[in-house]
């Protein structure tokens, strides 16, 4: 598994054409189904037997796709990959929780509740 900066060459989510943040918001069985669906589609497209005129590139791509699937479909391997593959060149730290829209919507209310206790009333919801 790659360590450090993620590039297109070793970004398993990009290889399988999956949105990393969307995957984060799904349940485990939904994640596996989405990964399996993406794998099957790309494996059929890049299988060496389906590409007789471009067999060398197809073999390389098929191996990349198979490696990505093997890591991402296994929960423990995916968790390790997510932690090890954070992109430190930007503000995107993928191994941190709370990287989905649902979480970002409730986070301000949660923080305010924790700061003010159960007597906190949201300023926009006081009507």
UniProtKB/TrEMBL annotation:
InterPro entries: DnaJ_domain (IPR001623), DnaJ_domain_CS (IPR018253), J_dom_sf (IPR036869). One of its GO terms (cellular component) is nucleus. GO terms for molecular function: protein folding chaperone; protein-folding chaperone binding; unfolded protein binding. Coiled coil: none annotated. It comes from the Eukaryota. CDD domains: DnaJ. Residues 11-85 form the J domain. This is J domain-containing protein. It comes from Artemia franciscana.
């Amino acid at each position: 598994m790659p360590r450090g900066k993620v590039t297109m060459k070793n970004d398993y989510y990009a290889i399988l054409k999956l949105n990393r943040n969307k995957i984060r918001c799904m349940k485990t069985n939904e994640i596996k189904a989405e990964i399996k669906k993406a794998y099957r589609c790309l494996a059929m497209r890049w299988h060496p037997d389906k590409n007789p005129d471009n067999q060398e590139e197809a073999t390389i791509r098929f191996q990349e796709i198979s490696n990505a699937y093997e890591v991402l479909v296994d929960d423990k391997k995916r968790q390790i990959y997510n932690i090890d593959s954070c992109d430190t060149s930007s503000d995107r730290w993928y191994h941190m929780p709370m990287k989905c829209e649902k979480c970002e919507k409730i986070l301000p209310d949660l923080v305010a509740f924790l700061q003010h206790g159960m007597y906190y009333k949201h300023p926009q919801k006081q009507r």
